[in-house]
Structure formats: structure tokens, C-alpha cells
Amino acid sequence: MSAAYDVVAIGNAIVDVIAPAADEFLAQEGLTKGSMMLIDEARAASLYGAMAAGVEASGGSAGNTVAGVASFGGKAAYIGKVAADQLGEVFSHDIRAIGVRFDTPYLEDGEATGRSLINVTPDGQRTMSTFLGAANQLTYHDVDAQLIRDSAIVYMEGYLFDPPPARAAFEHAAVIAREAGRMISITLSDVFVVDRWRKELLAFTEQSVDIVFANENELKALFQTDDFDAAVEMLRPLVEIAAVTRSEKGSVILRGSETVRVDACPVEAVIDTTGAGDQYAAGFLYGLARDLPLETCARLGSLAAAEVIGHYGPRPQVSLKTLAEQAELV
Predict the structure, then answer these.
(1) In 3D, which of 141, 57, 62 has the Cα closest to residue 91?
(2) CA separation for the pair 63, 157 (Å, rounded)
(3) How many Cα atoms occupy the beta-carbon half-sphere of 151 within 13 Å?
(4) What are the φ/ψ torsions at residue 288 (nearest 5 degrees)?
(5) Strand (E) positions, the chain?
(6) Please, what are the domains in the chain?
(7) Does residue 114 contact residue 132 with C-beta atoms inside 8 Å?
(8) 244-281 pLDDT tens trace
(9) DSSP per residue over 226-287, as a string?
(10) Closest by Cα among 38, 145, 134 to 80
(11) How many CB atoms lie within 10 A of CB 35?
């Protein structure tokens, strides 16, 4: 069945504030290195005031992924909630400017547009403190049923399991996609998300998901084991396709009894790992929507991840389409 869009993503619409930080700063602020912590608006204001000068960019995990799909030349759409405020306008402008369809109505009364305060240590690790704000107010009413039907793949971020109304939107979209014969994909997002919602994530994955994205730590947390190979075998029968990233070790792709291992793309220096998993998903989904072999999908994902970790910010700074053409992947 043909589709107007390669990927429609549903996620927390967030503006990222990214700044360099020392390990001592993390300790001083009580932050757990490499984690994602939900904070309130008052804490967001105080932490923002303490952070070093940085860059602001429209982000959010799923938003970053569709930005990557668009950079590859794919057709992408996004569903997420922002407020009718300055940051909301910035987010809306940024995502539309790169060619992604974004029609979700503004939140007129309620909290401000969400933002994620990301402190990046010299080793490239990012520690995220996120005020969800308006993003937390996404409901099933915001899900455009026709847009879901018009998209080859529906991509959802695990962060949406935190607020009940957003999870309801998540599940509503999955029902529409399933009835329309579209593929449903999910990223586990974060170890902390997995720890909070393990039972629910496993149930949703087994019942509704075709494609799972996870990093090694998230996968181990999902099955509560330190044995990577054992976790892989537990995941294998639950979904049609799984893509598990392992940082510098590359990625492992599962489909039925098939296992594909792909090396990570080399990089000159790791500057900021923010968005690496998001961009890996972008490349993989772009390839999958075009019926490319699994190995090529994974190589496109690795290519996109390598581009984004070479600079500050969670979205590509150069054309991923051009990089893919140069690498003879498309």
C-alpha cells in the first residue's frame, strides 16, 4: 500500500538547551550522569541559570528522528504538543522549515512549552533534565487519524509512557495504524523509562509493535539481565524487527532467526551524544520505508548517528542525503 509519508512520529515536543559541563557541575547540581530526569518549571529555571552558555535547538526524541528522515530526503510528519508561546513558535517554525508536516494545535491554556536542559561532559555523555510542560498535555484528540493512515511507519517514543493522557494518545495511534495495515515502531528512550514502565512496555510491544529500537542498556533493563546475548534472544520473538545500538560496537539487527551486525561509522571526535539514537532510528526507518536491506538500513542509521555526535545539537547539520549518496548507500 502506497503512503504519502514515510514516517509519522509522535513524541514530546521539546526545545533543547545544550551546554558543556564538568563532572563536578553534575555532582554539585545532584544530577546522575547519562540519565534523563523529569523536573518542574521552578527547577528548570534554577538549573538553566546555573548552566554554562550553550545552544538552543528544537528537539525532543521523536522530533529529532523525523528531522533526520527529512534530511535524508524522506517525507515525514510529526505529532506533539507545544504552547502558544515564544518557544512554541520557535519549535513549530524549526520543524516546518526542514520540511516536516506539523499541524498539532497549540496548547492555549496551561503550562509553557517543554524544554530539556542537557549538560554535556567532556567525554560526550549527555545528562538531561526535562521539563515536559505543554508536551505533557498531548491527548488522543491530538492524533490525526488520517495522518496515521497516510504514513508507512508510525514511530513513537517511550517517554510518552510517563503521562497517562499521552500514553492514551500513543495507544490510540497504534490502533489506527494497525487497522490501516501500517507498521508501528517504538524506541525505549531511556533506562529510567524502562524501569518505571517495564511491564506496560513489554505488554504494548508484544501486542502492538512491529519494530523496536533500544540501546544495549535499555535492552538489558527491559529484561533485567546483564547478559546482552540473553536479552537479545528474549526480544527476538516479541517483534518483527529489532535494532539494538551498542555505541562504538555498532548495532545488532534482529528479524526472525536472522541476525545482522553492523559496525559503527568512524568519527574524528565525539563532541555530544545527544540525538545519536534518534538519528540512528531516522536512518533505519528511512531505509525501511524504501524497502532497503536490513544491513543498509542499519548503515544509514550509523551514518546519521556519526554525523550528529560530531557536533553540539541533536539534529543533522549537513544533508544526510548527500552523505548517504557519497557512501553509496542510496
Answers:
(1) 57
(2) 10
(3) 35
(4) -65, -40
(5) 5-10, 14-20, 36-38, 55-59, 76-79, 101-102, 114-120, 126-131, 151-157, 183-187, 211-215, 241-245, 251-255, 258-262
(6) 5-326 (3.40.1190.20)
(7) yes
(8) 999 999 999 999 999 999 999 999 888 888 889 999 99
(9) S-HHHHHHHHGGG-SEEEEE-GGG-EEEEETTEEEEEPPPP-S-----TTHHHHHHHHHHHH
(10) 134
(11) 15
Type of residue found at 36 = M
Cell of 262: 553492523
- At residue 312 the predicted structure's pLDDT band, cuts being 50, 70 and 90, is confident
Among candidates 61, 316, 75, which has minimal Cα distance to 214? 61
The pLDDT assigned to 249 comes to 94
Residue pointed to by grid coordinates 538489558: 220
How far apart are the C-alpha atoms of 289 and 177, rounded to whole Å? 15
CA distance 276 to 167: 24
Residue 189 burial (10 A CB sphere; 0-12, 13-18, 19+): buried
Q: How far is CA 134 from each of CA 131, 138, 164, rounded to the nearest angstrom?
A: 9, 8, 14
pTM of the model: 0.89
DSSP-based three-state secondary structure for 222: helix
